[in-house]
Amino acid sequence: MSVLETVRYRLKPDATPEAAIKAWEKSQSFARAQDGFLSRKLAVTGEGDWLDLVEWRDMTCAKAAGAAFNPANFPELMDLVTVLDESSMVMSHYEVKGETG
After folding, report:
1. Alpha helix (H) residue ranges in the chain
2. Is 75 helix (H, G, I), strand (E, B) or coil?
3. Which helix (H) or strand (E) holds 4?
4. Buried b or exposed e, range 35-53, using 16+ CB within 10 angstroms
5. Pairwise CA distance, residues 77 & 79, whole Å
6. Could you tell me the end-to-end alpha-carbon distance of the chain, in angstroms, rounded to an integer?
7. 67 falls in which pLDDT band (50, 70, 90)?
8. Topology classification of domain 3-95
9. Chain segment 18-61, per-residue pLDDT in tens
């Protein structure tokens, strides 16, 4: 079964939600280019907690994509790094055990 990757974070104080959404959209090309990428969604709470939810084919692909995440090699990631507060970031991986459609 697939793997769900969750990345929870808050924005830097000077970042706007609009800039965060644009940065996330720009970073889509990186995600789509990674082996095993299946889907990605962005969500935010009313309190300003953001969630980037990515589905990967398997754990190997999820871990490889994480290892490849480097704005120096993929400039399309730079805007994302600029808006998110890295000190608040928490990444988790979950192996899917059930699914309905």
Report:
1. 17-26, 28-33, 59-68, 78-83
2. helix
3. strand 3-11
4. ebbeebebeeeeeeebebe
5. 6
6. 14
7. very high
8. Alpha-Beta Plaits (3.30.70)
9. 999 999 999 999 999 999 999 999 999 999 999 999 999 999 99
